[in-house]
Every structure is written in C-alpha cells, then in structure tokens.
Amino acid sequence: LLFLSETGGKDRRSGLILTIPLCLEQTSMDELSVTLDYLLSIPSEKCKARGFTVIVDGRKSQWNVVKTVVLMLQNVVPAEVSLVCVVKPDEFWDKKVTHFCFWKEKDRLGFEVILVSANKLTRYIEPCQLTEDFGGTLTYDHMDWLNKRLVFEKFTKESTSLLDELALINNGSDKGNQQERERSIDLNFLPSVDPETVLQTGHELLSELQQRRFNGSDGGVSWSPMDDELLAQPQVMKLLDSLREQYTRYQEVCRQRSKRTQLEEIQQKVMQVVNWLEGPGSEQLRTQWGIGDSIRASQALQQKHEEIESQHSEWFAVYVELNQQIAALLNAGDEEDLVELKALQQQLSDVCYRQASQLEFRQNLLQAALEFHSVAQDLSQQLDGLLGMLCVDVAPADGASIQQTLKLLEEKLKSVDSGLQGLREKGQSLLDQISNQASWAYGKDVTIENKENVDHIQGVMEDMQLRKQRCEDMVDVRRLKMLQMVQLFKCEEDAAQAVEWLSELLDALLKTHIRLGDDAQETKVLLEKHRKFVDVAQSTYDYGRQLLQATVVLCQSLRCTSRSSGDTLPRLNRVWKQFTVTSEERVHRLETAVAFHSTAEKILQECPEQPDAFNDMDQFDEIEAVGKSLLDRLTVPVVYPDGSEQYFGSPSDMASAAEHIREKMKLVSLKKQQLRQPEATTPES
C-alpha cells in the first residue's frame, strides 16, 4: 500500500495512470479503499473526466487478491476508471479461469480489464508514461512524491486552519460592536500556528515545485505537466495568496490591538495620576492651611510641605513620561485616536498644572509667612533691646556721653521704625496671598482657616505697633531728660567757664592794667577803658549767675543734685569779689592819677606873670599830698575779703609808675620854687 500512487504518467487518452502494486503479504482492502479514495481526491474534476488507467501489478500476488482489487474498483471509482491493466506474473494463473471471470463481469464492472505481461504493457501505454518497473522511461521516486504530498498536506491543513483562525480574528475586529470585537479578539487573538512559519513552508514548497517544473528532474527528463494538478501547485499559490492577505489583515489587527492596548494602558496610568492628584494629593493640601505662629512653626510646615512635594514629584515624573508617550502617539497615531489622545493629554496637563500651581502657591505662602515671622522676631528683639536701654537709669559722666547715648537711642528708634515698616509690608503681602487662597481653596471653604491666619497676622502687627508706641513714649521722656541733662552739663560747664573767664579778667587786671598814664588825658582814657573792662567782667559774672540759676532749676526738674554747681557758685562769688575789690582799687588809683595829672598840668602851664599865680600856693601843697598819696597806694597791695593780698603788676612796673609820678612832682616843686623867687626879690628891691 505504501507504493500505491499516481506516478504522473498518462495513457493515450491523456487520462491519469494509477498504479496499484500488490505484494505477497496480506492486503487490507479497507486500507486499500481509503488510499484509493485519497489518491482519487487529488486530481481535478477535469482530470477525472478524462478517466483513469489503473495498473494492477499482480506479479507478486495471488489471483484472488487481484480479482478482489479489480472488483473493488467498481465500488470506489466505477465512473473514473476506463481501463484496468492487470500485470500478470511470468507463471501465469489458470488462463481459462481468469479470462472467464473478467469477461463475465465486463458489463457489470463498467470498465475493460485486460491481463498483460509487463513487457507487453507498452501496447496500451506509451513507454515514456511508464516507470522503469514496467519497462518505461518515466522517472518517478515514490518516496520523494510521498514526502512532498506530506509537506503539501501539512501545509494545506495548517494554512486552512490558520486561514479560518485569521478570518475569525479579522472578522471579529471588523464588528461594529466594540464589546463583541474585544471579546472576539481576546478569545482568538493568538493563532494555533505561527503564520510566518506556515508562509515560509508554503513558499519553500512552491519554490521547489516551480523549480522542478522548469528545470527538470535530476535525471534530465522533463517534469510532467500533470504535476501542477497532482501536487496542487495552484492550490499552494492560492493558499499563499489567501494567507498573505489574511496575515496582512491580522498584522493590522495586531497593530491596532497593540495600539489600543497601549492607549488603554496610557489611559489607565493617566487616570491613576489624575485620581491620586485629585484624591490623596489634594487631600494633603486641604489639611495644610496654617502658616504657623513663629519661625519654628513655619519651618516645620515648610518641612511637611517638602514631604508633600516629594510625593507629588513621583507622580509628576509619571506625568512627564506619559506626556512623552502621548506626544509620540499623536505624531504617529491615526486620526481616530487623535481626539481621545488630545483629551487625555489635556486632562492630564490640566490636573498636573493645577496641582503644581497649588503646591507653588502653598510654598510661596509658607515662605512669606517665614519671612513675616522672621521680621517680627527681629523687631521684637529690637524692641526688647530698646526697652532694656530705656529701663536703665541714665548716669552719664559728661555731656558728650549723654550725646552719644542719645544718638544711640535715636538710631535704635529709627531701626525700630524701619523694622515695623518692613513688618507691615511683609504682613500686607502675606495678607494679599491669603486672600488669594480662596481662589484655590483645594475644593474646601477656607474662610475660617483664613480668618485665623489673618487674625494672627494683624494681631502680631498691632502688638508690635503698641510696643513700638510705648517705646516711643518712653524715648520721648528719656530724650527730654537727657536733653535736660545735656543742658545741665552745659550750664555747669559754661558756669565754670564764666568763673575761668572772670579769673582771667582778674588776672589781666592785676598783671596788665598797671599803667596810670603820663598825663590827665591818657589817664582818663585808661579810666574809660577800665570801666568797659569792668562791664565785661560784670556781664561774665551775670552770665555765670544765670547759668548757675538754670542748673538749680534743671536739678530740681531732674530730681538730682549737681555735682559741680555747689562749688562753682562760691568760686564765682569769690572771684567776683576779688575782681570788684581790685577794680575799685584800680578806679581809685586812676581817679587819683587824673586829679594829680590835672592839677600838675594846670600848675605847670601857668605863667609867672599871671597875677593870681602866687595866690594859689595851696595848690602846690594839695598836689604834693595827692602825689604822695598816689605813691603810697602804689606800694600797698590789694587786700581781698578772705585776707589774701595781691599786687598790681610787678615791682618794676610799680617802680616805673612811681618814678614817673615823682618826676612830675619834681617839676611841680620846681615850678613852686620858681614862683617863690620873684616874691623874695621884690622886697629887697
């Protein structure tokens, strides 16, 4: 049965030749029937219409078996068989029996059966259509033919099954109902065999068939044209064409499915991002509304916000990746997906940007709150420092230290003013941001929370304003007190300076105001200068007294005892009394000198011929007495109320002044003698 085949040869009617080799072993008629059915199914209907010539090779079999096979042909292929050639063995069966049986059954069989020797078979079939077994030249390799039939059958079975599967998949993808399409694709998405492998097998089979047809067999004999039908080359080509078509559609379905799967994955990831940002992410921001009441509290809130931002950053990284994937799909996607992709991209971007804006707003708010509390703390420390400075009693050593302290106080107050102004600016900026928080709101009414923040900010600014106002009031009082102390020190210094000036005037009076003048006119000028000098001293003394009176008033206002005024007033009075005594002595000496010089000059200017010249001799005695009195005063020191004494000028200066007076007294005495001589000579005459 293994060699039962269609060799590809043809009879003289162009019918196909079917060879049935029989062997000595027991032949199964059932298997023979099945094999015949298979072989008869291979040719086309056109070939079948031309009929078959069946060669039953009975050379190695018994007559009963041959007879059974011939009779079986009637049941299997009665219409297709036109001639049955039974090749008889060399030791032929009983001729009478065999001839009688076939002739008797001829009409009933429907085909002619002839018994022929192998070497006589060429009478009915051309040698070129017979194989070497029957003395022909047809090249035929049954195993090669069988292997190719097996390859063909396998290819046909796999390709047919694959075509059905691909058609089911492709037709399922074309359904209008989306749910049915997805369900169909899910159930039949992967074919049972690899389409690429089946296509490769078909191409290899087709290539070998075409090559043997056009190039001939290995023996050089042309391949029979019937091979196109026996090996079904057109079927292979048709199956390949169908496979390519369905596989192309299948690849498109896979591409669409892959794109849909990718789109669904992106959509799922987008919804994960959106759901987290609008869910837990937004809830985190809803619970964070405070700004803290100190630097430490604000820093703690900032640290908590950084943790929230860190969690959001992970989702924002997913957003960036998804956005890139969506952009790539938009660039390479179909028009039907553009709307959905753009909608996903827009939804994702809107949610992410809104959440990022809320995070940025919260971060800016906390930063503004931190700056506000930092400025408030600095201002509070400045106010504490200023208050501490104001609470310490002022005990400066002099006016310069008071001025320095006052300058430092003014600088601190100015710094507080600047700090408060900065706090107001920071507070107002923070209030403006809080007022804008309602526009974000995180899906929540933040009026109550905002009110607490606003009340806290306003409370801090009002408290700082009150503290600054109290410090300003204390600074005003301290400034007044310090200015009074400056004035007190100034008055004491000026009073001491007045004493020094008065002492200098006294010293100048004693040391430089010693001349008495050479004549009456000069002496009067000196007297007039002395009176002016005394006026200056009087003004200095009065100025000092006024300053000392002012120190008393200031001390009473400051409720303190001046450390210098108690000593300055006695000094001022003592110097003034010394100056007064010295001035009176100077005036007396100058007045005496004026009287002396006036009388002396009058006497010295009179002529002896004047009739009254000799009647005024008393003037000479008077001027002599004045001169002596003046000389005596020049030698007497000025005695002060405390008993101390002080001379005018140096002894040489006094000696010079006395010598000038004596010379003038000599002139007067000489004048007196001159006047007396004429009086003595007159009686003698």
UniProtKB/TrEMBL annotation:
Q: Which domain of life is it from?
A: Eukaryota
A single GO molecular function, which one?
A: phosphatidylinositol-5-phosphate binding
Q: Which residues form the CRAL-TRIO domain?
A: 1-142
Has keyword Repeat?
Answer: yes
Mind listing the UniProt keywords for this protein, alphabetically? Answer: Repeat
| Keyword check for rRNA processing | no
Which InterPro entries has this protein been placed in? CRAL-TRIO_dom, Spectrin_SESTD1
Entry's family note: Belongs to the SOLO family.
Q: What is this protein called?
A: SESD1 protein
Organism, as annotated:
Sylvia atricapilla (blackcap)
Lineage from the top down?
Eukaryota, Metazoa, Chordata, Craniata, Vertebrata
Gene name on record? Sestd1
